[in-house]
Amino acid sequence: MRIGELSRRTGVNAHQLRYYEAQGLLAADRGANGYREFDESAVLRVKQIRHLLGAGLSSEDIAYLLPCATGEAPELLGCPELVAAMRSRLRRLDDQLDRLARSRGALADYIDAAERQGGESYPPLEAVPA
Length: 130
Description:
Residues 1-68 form the HTH merR-type domain. One of its GO terms (molecular function) is DNA-binding transcription factor activity. This protein is mainly alpha-helical. The chain folds into two domains: 1-77, Multidrug-efflux Transporter Regulator, Chain: A, Domain 2 (Orthogonal Bundle), CATH 1.10.1660.10; 78-119. The protein has five helices and four strands; from the N terminus they run ααββααββα.
C-alpha cells in the first residue's frame, strides 16, 4: 500500500509516517516509480508506535523497543534490554515530576506572598498570560 492509504488506515498523516521511516521505526520498499510501498504489517507497526509515543517514549526509545513488541497495544515481551530501557525512562519521568512539583511549590509561594502584600489589585490568575 502507498503512504496515503497507510495514512487513511491509521489516522496518522503522511508527514509523520515519513518521519517514522526516517527514524527507523517504519520500513517501506520503493516501487519502480519511486513511491513508498508498505506491506500490511505497517498498519500494526504504526499503531504500536502511536501507543508507545502516547506513553511518553521517544522515537529513539521506541526504535529500541519495537523488536520486543507484539500486538496493537502493544504487549512488550520480556527482553532484558527492554526492561532496562523502560526503567531508565521511568526514572527520567520521575525526575521531571519532582522538578515540576518544586517549581509549582515555589510559584504558589510567590503568589501567596504577592497576595499578602496587597494582591487585590492584581488581575485574577486566569487573566495573566502564560
